Amino acid sequence: MRKANTQTPCSETNNPSPSSALIYTARAENNNGFFRDILQLYVSEGSAIADLTWGRGKFWDGIDQSKYELIRLDKYTPCDVNADFRAVPLADASRDAVIFDPPYVTRMSFKARTKGNPAGSNQKDAFGVNATGPKNEREIDELYAAGTAEARRILKRGGILILKTMDTQRWRHIELANLPGFKLIDLFVVVTKGLPPGKAYAQKHARKNHSYFMIFQKLRRAV
Ligand SMILES: C[S@@+](CC[C@H](N)C(=O)[O-])C[C@H]1O[C@@H](n2cnc3c(N)ncnc32)[C@H](O)[C@@H]1O
């Protein structure tokens, strides 16, 4: 089994794409399109991967999972191991790459997908309209802190953390940029395809129509 390309993450040798198919940081694309690019750049085939927030496995749509030693975890959805990402049942330094896409909105700010709001979500469990989700920003902070600490524990030296997030009332991607024990090595801006529908209203701020994949490499030092 080959290890993740953790020593030279930006090496051209790990990206055989011709120049006409270079990978760029931002575009209007589904998550799985970016995720495919991220695996190509940073995670070699055969790598040991843990997806801590499997959900419905949407990141992996169209990707041959058999090329990796993949373990799918989630506390609430069907997967290999139902586990809380704050206490992951995997050994220290056992994974080349970890994927972490925790709930990032509170119960209060969740907007369900309806005819009148097609931009909403149908992932109740993920976003906390039921009793499982975070009630406030402090609880979201705690999920990020505990989950990324577990990701660091189970990653091998130089391992890769693929973290998905979105800015809300908080500039979360800025807050996360200096994640303890990691170096941010890439940042992808996932622009929502099309414009989010909505009635005109008196705006105070620009409406956000993008999210992020943040790519971190585990550092030797914990802070
Ligand atoms: C944004 S969704 C992930 C979506 C997933 N990346 C996909 O492609 O389908 C967040 C996921 O975190 C899970 N989750 C929430 N709290 C959790 C916890 N404490 N431990 C483990 N999983 C949790 C939810 O069940 C949900 O599937």
State the gist of this model.
This protein is of the alpha/beta class.
Description:
There is one protein chain. This protein is of the alpha/beta class and 223 residues long. The protein has one domain (12-218): Vaccinia Virus protein VP39 (Rossmann fold, 3-Layer(aba) Sandwich), CATH 3.40.50. Helix content is 17%, strand content 23%. The protein is built from 4 helices and 8 strands; from the N terminus they run βαββββααβαββ. It has helices at residues 31-42, 124-127, 137-154, 172-176, and strands at residues 26-28, 48-51, 69-74, 81-82, 95-100, 155-165, 182-191, 210-218. An 8-stranded mixed beta sheet has the order 1-7-8-6-5-2-3-4. The longest helix is centred in the middle third of the chain and has 18 residues, at 137-154. The protein is globular and about 50 Å long. Mean pLDDT is 86; it is low at 1-13.
Q: Fraction of residues in helices? A: 10-25%
Oligomer: single chain
How many β-strand stretches? 8
Terminal CA distance reads 30 Å
Annotate the secondary structure layout:
Layout: E1 26-28, H1 31-42, E2 48-51, E3 69-74, E4 81-82, E5 95-100, H2 124-127, H3 137-154, E6 155-165, H4 172-176, E7 182-191, E8 210-218
Parallel strand pairs: 1-7, 2-3, 2-5, 3-4, 5-6
Antiparallel strand pairs: 6-8, 7-8
The structure holds S-adenosylmethionine.
Residues 53, 55-59, 74-77, 84-86, 101-103, 125-126 line the site of S-adenosylmethionine (SAM).
